[in-house]
TrEMBL record:
PANTHER family: DUF1985 DOMAIN-CONTAINING PROTEIN
Name of the featured protein: DUF1985 domain-containing protein
Every DUF1985 domain range: 76-211
Superkingdom field: Eukaryota
Annotated InterPro entries: DUF1985
């Protein structure tokens, strides 16, 4: 796959506005106390997994400048293509697309039908794990519930601890919702099949979340039309 050409810099190197905001304010809630991640023995394995890019971004202290983001969103263009973000930078329109997102993150961005509503059977194992999490069976876990579970998971099996860590990435980085807001249960249930969860196109899910947040008034309603 050819790496797309990235747009020119808006600011001269060394003269950028200060970056004082976290890449995800919700994700930092997991690392505010290092003991949460210390409970996960497989931390390094997770960091090298297909979802490890989120942990690496946080460890890099990858922050952003509100002035730059406000500038780009203030000159955002209303376009017909879904899941592309176009902004006017000087006299030139600049596009941020799924293809660029995929190349920047290395996440799986493949197209699948029913992206946010995959089917997972409600098994005894799933029911038992949701009870361990302290989460209602018909809801996905919230950031608050995952943090609480991280503090009591020492005696859990290796697979269950790995499931918990993946759900921490899902709730804190991919979805990034408010502290007590449940996530989509159909996506969270995928964690019961670890290989399926690891290979799911989370890049496409994360990109959809990003577009929904940054294009609330531009007619973004469905993931079916995501393009590169």
């Amino acid at each position: 796959m050819d790496i797309p050409e990235l747009p020119r810099r808006i600011h001269t190197l060394g003269e950028e506005p200060p970056a004082v905001h976290s890449i995800s304010s919700r994700s930092w809630e997991f690392s505010s106390s290092s003991k949460n991640w210390d409970l996960i023995d497989e931390y390094e394995e997770l960091k090298e997994s297909k979802l490890g890019v989120f942990i690496k971004f946080q460890e890099l202290g990858f922050d952003w400048a509100s002035r730059l983001v406000h500038y780009m969103l203030g000159f955002q263009l209303d376009i017909k293509k879904k899941y592309e973000l176009w902004s006017l930078v000087g006299p030139k329109p600049v596009r941020f697309s799924l293809l660029k997102f995929e190349n920047l993150t290395g996440l799986n961005c493949e197209y699948i039908e029913d992206l946010e509503r995959p089917h997972s059977a409600v098994t005894k194992e799933l029911t038992s794990f949701w009870e361990m999490l302290g989460v209602h069976l018909e809801a996905g876990p919230s950031t608050q519930e995952i943090i609480a579970a991280l503090e009591r998971c020492e005696g859990w099996s290796r697979d269950d601890r790995k499931r918990l860590a993946y759900l921490a990435i899902f709730t804190g980085y991919i979805k990034g919702r408010k502290y007590s807001t449940p996530t989509r249960v159909s996506l969270a249930r995928l964690v019961m099949e670890l290989e399926r969860f690891e290979n799911y196109p989370w890049g496409r899910v994360a990109f959809k979340v990003l577009m929904d947040l940054n294009s609330p008034g531009l007619g973004v309603h469905s993931s079916a039309g995501i393009g590169c």
